[in-house]
What does this fold into?
Amino acid sequence: MLPRVFLVGAGPGHPGLATLRAVECLRQTDVVIYDKLAPAALLDFAPAHAEKISVVELGSDHVERSQPTLDLMIAKAQQGKTVVRLKGGDPLVFGRGGEEAQALHAAGIPFEIVPGVTAALGAAAFAGIPLTHRQHASAVAIVTGHEDPGKPESALDWPALARFPGTLVFYMGIARLERITKALIEHGKDAATPAAVVYWASTGAQRTMDARLVDLPPTVQHAGITPPALIIIGDVVALRPELAWFEKMPLFGKRVLVTRPKLQAGDLVTKLAALGAVPIALPAVEIREPMDWTAVDRAIAELQRYDWLVFTSANGVYAFLGRLLHQNRDLRSLGHTRLAAIGPKTAAALRSYHLFGDLVPAKYQSEDLAAALLEKIKPGARILLARADRGRDVLRQELAKTCTVEQIAVYSQVDAVEPNHPALEQLRRGEIDFITLTSSNIAKAILAALDEVCRQRILSGRTRLVSISPVTSADIRALGLPVAVEAKSATSDDMLEALIEWQIAAG
Ligand code: SAH
It folds into this structure.
């Protein structure tokens, strides 16, 4: 019988550490029941229609309260639905995956278990602590720190753990750190053994504290960081200065707001996470269909009238060509029309339809596109400009000086900042390092949504604004706020590069 329930490991926190199989399972599921520690970004792989239920919502986020999750999983499977049970790390390492699989077996529901990168492996790689090493450790023990070492009924053999010839990794132990270190030392472990606590391993929020075993509890106490955290004890911890690559990433630990519309934020979010940052999505605008397709449909019906078709955004390409196909036409109707794209992202969108731009300016702003076009086209040429229903009018004005320009709104862009969004609360509390502003409209939408406390964070330099271009910067300054970082040419890759340079210079 084919599996109905997939017990899937989501990895330790970095969404890129989920397995390909995990993504395959998510793509074909009807229901996802996910743990608190499973990275939220993975939920986006599930189809839009899939139900997404958090175990916290079920009141089932503690070991003693697993029944609601089991009941729901079984009920959904019995209704014929496919269920992904998404668990942090690996489902079978302190993940209750064993118990859940037993319950499924007892209910006669076929299941599959998809392993995941367990927190110990994520922490080892991202904090630079090899769990084994030919000179330092030939074994690893994965131990629960949930047990109170002082209790006589403890299931753990502390003398054996103290003698264990290798690296010890304690899960769920941070609240009992002092008792754990004491128990190990009392049973003979060298008090000077290198040891570390790794919080939020593999995410931009990762923090690692290391100290001698005996000094670890006071070191950690003063840091005041919230779990999840792992305790790693063994000589291998001493290798961190050479191996801790992630914590040396240029944007490590920086909290960066990504304000692009949800569907276009992915690329920037992934790149920021790879640079060690904590990307936080706060979509500023939303892309919708235009209120009225009449003008677009008329232009599509008469495409042969235009010499050039000009796109000023990837969204414009998707919207226009989507509509063309929707009208039962195909790319042949563009046969004789020349195509211009404002920048590399727009050109890439054309290429995704197997179309090459005839013109992409060397710099990516309306003025540059207008200049490049005017150089290339004959006066009197007929130009169709496919764009959003709002934005700058420069391109049309410039082109209209010598050509016949028709402008159509192929998509609509509306402000979409949610006033109670948690990211705004973080900004108020002074927890955001940078806000990326990837267009003038986005900048205006975000800045309009800021209250006085948020504005003060920016004016005082706690939070810095990162602008994609001089035009966007001018709009930001016109709203009375300073721009700290500006991209050289208007692409998000340039913006990231400028941000990295700024951060390196700032130390
Ligand atoms: N099944 C999970 C473990 C669940 S138990 C796995 O295989 O990783 C929860 C414990 O895992 C937490 O108390 C903490 O000790 C550890 N943990 C999970 N994610 C972590 C992370 N990103 N960083 C540090 N510890 C983590």
Remarks:
- The chain has a mean pLDDT of 93.
- The chain has four domains: 5-117, 120-248, 255-284+417-506, 288-415.
- Residues 379 and 392 are 23 Å apart (CA to CA).
- The radius of gyration is 28 Å.
